Amino acid sequence: MQHTAVIALGSNLSQPAQQIQAALDELAALPACRLLQASSLYLSAPVGYTDQPDFINAVCLLATDLSPHDLLAALHGIESRFGRERSFRNAPRTLDLDIIDFDGRILSEEHLTLPHPRAHERSFVMLPLAEVAPDYHLPGYGRAAELAAALGNDGIRKLS
Questions:
Q1: 101 catalytic, yes or no?
Q2: Is 96 part of the annotated catalytic residue set?
Q3: Of residues 138, 6, 129, 105, the one with CA closest to residue 63
Q4: CATH code at 52?
Q5: More confident residue, 88 or 82
Q6: Contact indicator for 72, 111 with CB cutoff of 8 Å
Q7: In which domain, by residue range, is 34 found?
Q8: Would you call 116 helix, strand, or coil by DSSP?
Q9: CA 151, CA 43: separation in Å to the nearest integer?
Q10: Is 98 a catalytic residue?
Q11: Catalytic residue (one of 25, 86, 89, 93)
Q12: 93 in catalytic set
């Protein structure tokens, strides 16, 4: 059965724009997955730990036959191949891939919470999602376009 997943991508180390583009290629090449749509790239200020370079962010929609857990494992594999190190929360990173939503499922487990618990608070997720799927409904929070409008675009800029 085909599912739709919303994936957020972020990078602020080792040529971040190229990291995001290469990660989109990796996502498109995942077995049992098809890249449906990808947003533009966005430049955003870091959140949490601010003593680091700005991030390049994007969002994509992925059709997949994988389960949420198998998709998460595949994302972690891509991050690992890109040199991701998990030194501390909100640390600089070569690549960050997050499942924002998976078919509107509600899930709260130790390693996976759906929808992503902070996505609705982050313009660097909601603005790219609103760009590619303005009517996408994030369960419990509302439409992507409305969430993005409420957050505004302070600290984030769409790259040409």
A1: no
A2: yes
A3: 6
A4: 3.30.70.560
A5: 82
A6: yes
A7: 3-158
A8: coil
A9: 16
A10: yes
A11: 93
A12: yes
| The one catalytic residue among 34, 51, 81, 84 | 84
Tokens of 23: 């990660």
Between the CA of residue 58 and those of 61, 106, 111, 126, what are the distances in Å? 10, 23, 22, 10
The backbone region for 104, taken as left when phi is positive above 0, alpha when psi lies in -120 to 50, beta otherwise, is: left
Burial of residue 93 (CB within 10 Å: 0-12, 13-18, 19+) is buried
In three-state form (DSSP H/G/I as H, E/B as E, the rest C), the secondary structure along 54-97 is CEEEEEEEEEECCCHHHHHHHHHHHHHHCCCCCCCCCCCCCCEE
Do β-strands 3-11 and 55-64 pair in parallel, antiparallel, or remain unpaired?
antiparallel
Confidence bin at 85 (pLDDT 50/70/90): confident
Token duo for residue 95: 């690549």
Candidates 98, 105, 143, 157; catalytic one: 98
The predicted pLDDT at position 89 comes to: 76
pLDDT at site 112:
96
Paired tokens of 25 = 């290629």
Q: Nearest to residue 24, comparing CAs of 44, 11, 38?
A: 38
Judged on CB neighbours under 10 Å (0-12, 13-18, 19+), 156 is: buried
Q: How many domains does the chain have?
A: 1
